Structures are given as C-alpha cells and as structure tokens.
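Co-fold these.
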Amino acid sequence: MIRIDEYPTHELNGIKYRCGRVQPFGASVVSNTGINFSIFSKDATYCELVLFHHGAPEPFARIPFPEEFRIGNVFSMIVYGLDIEEVEYGYCMDGPYDPEHGYRFDRSKILLDPYAKLVSGRNVWGREPDWSDQFQHRGCVILEDYDWEGDKPLEIPMKDLVIYEAHVRSFTKDESSGVRYKGTFAGILDKIPYLKELGVNCIELLPIFEFDEFENSRVIDGERLYNYWGYSTVCFYAPKAGYAASAPLGLAADELKNLIKQLHKAGIEVMLDVVFNHTAEGNEQGPYISYRGIDNKTYYLLTPDGYYYNFSGCGNTMNCNNAIVRNCILDALRYWVSDYHIDGFRFDLASILSRDENGAPMTSPPLLETLAHDAVLGKAKLIAEAWDAGGLYQVGSFPAWGRWAEWNGKYRDCIRKFIKSTAECGPELVWRLKGSPDLYGNRNSDASINFITCHDGFTLLDMVSYNEKHNMANGEDNRDGNNDNDSWNCGIEGETDNEEVLKLRNRQVKNAAGLLLLSRGIPMILSGDEFGNTQSGNNNAYCQDNAISWLDWNKLKEHKDIFDFFRKMIAFRLQHPVMRRSDFYTGQNMLGYPEMSFHGTRPWELDENAPFLSFGFMYAEPAAYYGTGEDAFIYCAVNAYWEDVTFELPVIPEGMKWEVVAYTGSEQPEKCSVDNGNVHLMGRSLMVLIGH
Amino acid sequence: MFEFNVTNNEGEVDVDLKGRLDATVAPQLHEEMAKLQGSDIKKVTFNVKDLEYIASAGLRVIIFAKQKLGADTEIFMKDVNEDVKQVIEMTGCDNFVTIL
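Predicted complex below.
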C-alpha cells in the first residue's frame, strides 16, 4: 500500500518535506526515506529545523516550520532523503527575551532537541571540543529496531537483589582491568563473568545519560579535572556517547543495548542512576544547550524575578511537577524501560521531585505519584535518594505509594558508627538489621536500600584507613566533600605497612560487609569495595578521571581474601531466604523460635535499649516455609569491642549442630570450632554460624 | 563508493563488500539479500577485505541475514580488518558472526 505521507509537499533548496506528526516528540524514522521531527515550545513565536552533516561547522539546511506545521504548542515536520547515519539536527527558536519574566529566547542559538535519542559532540571521552563550534551538543537519529532476541527486563523480586554500584569508566578504564575496550559499555561486557562469580544480580550504573565531561573542567597541578561522574544531564534520552567505544560510528545505543542484553543473559539486572533534578545549563551564566532556549519558563523553577532556584546545588532546578516536564520525565523513563530494557532507576536528589513550582515540598507530588502508578514502569524498580541540597530530608518519609524504595542513609551512618565501637548505636543497629521497620513500617524492608558506602564518600577500605578526607587533588583546598564520614583509620592515617593496623582494617572491611549482607533490606555494594579499592582518602572523586577513581584490579589478587569473603556472604544470603523476607516478621515461626532474635554474649540476654558492643542475632529458617530443603539457624556474633569476647550460642533443637561459616578474625573459618556451645571472637570481629 | 556482489552456490552464499557500507547504500544490499529468502541458505560468508566502513545500517543487513535466511544459517566474515572487527565486537554481533 502506498501511503500519502511518503510524499513531500514542500521543498527548500532541494530538501523535501511535509507537515509532520506531533507525536512522538523527537526525531523518528517514519519510512525508508522520511524522518519526523517534533518539538514542543509554549512561547516560541518561530521555530526552524537546522540540519548539519556530521561534524560540519555550518548547517547544510535551515527549514522554518510554516505556521500550518504547528499544532497547539508543537512544531512538527517530516523531512525526506536524509542520511540517518550522518545527519545531525537542532532547532532555532525565537520569542520574547525578558529574563525578569522568565523568557530567554535567543534566535542565534542552535538548540539540542530534549528528546534526541543520541547526541554527538562529545563522542570520544576527553577529546578537547572545538569551542568555536556554534552547536556543541548535536542531535542524531537512530534506528530504533534493535534485535533483543527475546530479552526483557528480568523482574527479579526486589527483596532478592544484591546491587553493585559502578561507574562505567572507572570500572574498566585502568590497564589492570584487562578488558578489550577499556572504560566503555563494551568494556563491562568482559567483566560479566567476574560479576557472576561475585554473585551480584543487579548493576547500578552512575549516570549514563549524555553529559559534558568538560562542564566546569579545569587543570590543577597539570591534571585535567572533569565533570567525571556526570551528575549533570545534557539529554535525558541519549546514552553518554563517550562511554561507548563505538560512538564515533554512531553506535552508542547498539553497544549499550548489547551490554544490557548480555547482562540479562547472565541474570544481572541493570539499574540507572538518573538525574532529573537539574540540567547542565546551570544558572543565568550558563550556556544555552536546550531547555533554556526552547521554553525556559516551563522547564525550570524560577524565582519571582526570573532567576533560577538552586535546590540541586548545581545552578538550576527542573520544574518537575509542571505537566509538560512531568511528561518529559515520564516519557524518558518509559523509553529506557521499553527501548533499553532497563530494570529500575535510582533518582538522584529525588526530594526535588516532590517540590512544587514555587519550590515548596508537596505531600502528594504528581510526578512521584505518576511514576509510581505508570503502566510501562509497572515492574521497574524506583529508588529515591530521599534528600536534596535545599535541606529537604525524607529518609523514611518519601512519598512512596508502596512503590518507592530509598537509599537508607541512616543505615549507613549507624553501621559506620557501630563498627568503630560506638556503643550508643547498638539499640539503633537492632532496627537497621531488621530492615528498618522504624522507618519503613508502613511499607516493607525492601524499601530500605542498605549501604555503607557509595560513590559519594570514602570507599570501604578508605573508611577504615582515614579519619579525614584528603581532597586536595580536587583543587578546592579540601573544602569539598563531606566532613562527617564516621570513619576511623585504625590508628594510622592512610597508607602504612604496620601489620597490626592492616590486619585490623582488613577485619573492619569484612565486619562491615558481613553486617550489610546479613541484614534485612536490600544490600548495595560500591564496586571495588569487594577487593579493597582505595581512592587514597579522596571522599569526593567527582572530577578525577585517573587512578584515584579507576579501579585497580591488581588489588583483587592482593585482597583475594576480602573478595572471597564478599562472594561467600553474597552466596550465603541468596541461599537463605529468611534474610530476604520483607514483611519485618520476627515472631515465633514453625521452628518454635523467633524468626529473628537478638542476644547478648549469653543467649536471649540483650538489653536492646542500652548501649552495647558485643551481641548476636539469629535467624530461624524453617524449610517447610521457605522451601530450602532443611531447617536452619543462622547466628551472627558481632564483637565491636576491642578485646576478645566469648559468646555462648543459643541452644538449637537436638540433632542440630553449629558450624562456622565465616569469621573475620581468620581466613580459615573451617578451622574455627565451637567450644562446648561457646565461640571466642577476637576484638573487632564477626562470626557467622549455621546450625543444621 | 560502495560495491557488492552476491553469489549463491547451492545454498552457500558469498557476499563481497567493497568501500563504505552506509545508510545510503545499505537498502540496495538488503534488497539483494532479501531475494535469498526461502532458498535454503546454509552459509553466508561476507568477504570484507575491502570494506572500509560499516555502522548502523550495514550491521542491520548482517543481522537480517542471520534472522531471515534461516534459523540454521551460519554467518561468517572473512578477511576482517581491525576497524570492522571492533564494530562487530562492540555491538555484540560476534555472538552470531564467526570471524574467519
């Protein structure tokens, strides 16, 4: 059948076009020869499609949208005969320039389509851009016909996740990674067997939406500093081209999709850290990239006199609960789930998403409610970083509709303090190990993303090696980064060859990992912590594209025991569903024991309301309920005291015997034995036993 | 400039590619490959010694060969230069293309 819209109605300098379709927004291939372009602007009085050959400084065509091509506030046209592999496009818009009233139209600027599926201009990471180029971030067209070979999001139950937080470039950029395409999506492919061996089942990637590594870039002591983490989005629909080895050929989307498909084949979900709270355009002094020139008043929260609200700490704040912006965010997330098979999202500074158009927090923010109930996102995990830079802190109270989980910052703080022998944290620790029912009692424990370390702050080894942050390399006189780290250097600040200190640090790393992986709630591990990665005390490596951030895979050999401990504890967690139960149940179960109980150095004797440093906790796991094949008791003795302590183990049913699974005081737990119902723990150590 | 030649020798197909296989020429090659559908093709060998460039549209012709010529059709690539080999690896086509 021949379609009427296969044929142009207009022609300008040899370029043929016709009126387009208003939906979907963005550039879409609509036939063998046509590309539909559609863009929203409420206040633009004029709009022009600007077409470039790949990388060319000047456009080869500028096509004004005739008035009849505008429906409502949407401009659309189909252009024929373009080479999709080499065309780049943008828009010029005109309208009022009246900053006091929020209008900032500038017809001289060429603007990136907010819905561009691929962006060129930063195709090779770190390659100095041509700053004289009038169009820095260029929209590209992709074929959205990827062959998924039957793949779909894995839908692993939230309660069963073990999340691994990683930065695409840091993960494999170092020579020691041994992968073929270092620092890229393709590089991660070669590490899939490693992730499987470790046992994690979800990788959470730091931002991979297109960003500009040169934003606020500078040279300090001869070292180029970048916008390395990328928490500053240029385009919400495009993968970061500089993370794709194949980006110079326009294949970044294919490369990322292949990575996701292969991770799924290995049973590993992919979660994205997404930044919708602000954009890379900064404040009044920032560049025109896209939104500012398309519809400044719609996209940004503005003060009454037209300045940018700065709840993000990054210059501007997205107007997230505006209907247009809300749809833009929703469309983006739907796109990543449906076209990239993304399994879930972690929302950076998510509390901003709960602010109204004047910046005030709302009790029922429409955006969060929409995301919670959306059909396409229906099985996607939604995780909030439940605070913002404007002082809103919503851990435990983030508007959730039963769908949202949270990074549990209180879990992090409590564990950190306890393992450095802060007895006053003992009572709170009981709540944290139970999955934080004090915070999430009206939800369940899989709303609690438990973590001790993440990209923000010290690595786990640094947390036990430094009392103070060491951020001089960031060029901000050590002012940046958190000062309250709840860390302890075990006696000597930083690098040392003191054997006793090194042994203690080694134990403390394992103590933290042990608590994390035995807690109810969802554990999240920072990549590299499983083999003692260090950032040399830098607790804010947001700008460091060098050995400070890049994982040193040589440490995997050096700290093989730490890796083995993590691997063993992850496997142990996944073998024992009692730890993953999400309804906070701790009462009597089919074994005649409380499902989760707390003990002193003598069983059943712990004052949970008084400070303590040495305690035990026990899970009772009935096979008939959990389908595990055999009844089991899991007991963890925790000694955060600095001297040796003897623990008397709870009595378990006749015929069952305690067996040591792991002990942070020894690399050979199989040689540790139960001595007449007692176990002996050295100072600052943790022991896991199974009774079966 | 792009040239191609497709020869079918009793179910063993040789596809010689030369020059730049981009979006402007890929439909021609695709059309020629589509003629092979239903011909019981056992093996397709892309001879790419003189192939200078392949990206999105070109890869799709290869994926088409795998998907549409028959479930058991084997796909080979011969005399692959380093650039083309990398594209194949980075996008995961090496999962079904055997590089000779």
